[in-house]
Amino acid sequence: MEAEDSDFxxxxxxxxxxxxxxxxxxxxxxxQALVPISTGLVLVTPSTDSSTATVSSADSTKQATIIFNDxxxxxxxxFGAGATLADFSKKLAPGESYEPTFRYTxxxxxxxxxxxxxxxxxxxxxx
Length: 127
Known about the structure:
Layout: E1 19-22, E2 33-36, E3 38-44, E4 53-56, E5 62-71, E6 75-79, E7 90-92, E8 97-98, E9 108-112, E10 118-126
Antiparallel strand pairs: 1-2, 3-10, 4-9, 5-8, 5-10, 6-7, 6-9
């Protein structure tokens, strides 16, 4: 399938905050489309005590989650409730980001290794 020589085929088609452009690779048979999305950025401020923070609540419309540890301490992320330093799914170093390669709609929690300064930046993409 040959792409048409138009603004849309070059990836310059219409988009706004409620759409995501899917661009066709040269020579592919993939059809171009605009996919409606909803996004939200949540700042999670780590607690300086021993509590666990909810990074992302359970939501059946959640399609993807992008997590960035914008703090000065390691964060221990858990797919589920009650993250601890011994019970976690993924350790995030300061400045590290993580995007699960699978769809997960459950709760995500985090625990920091020590009293951190900064935030956990979370972007959710929902239906």
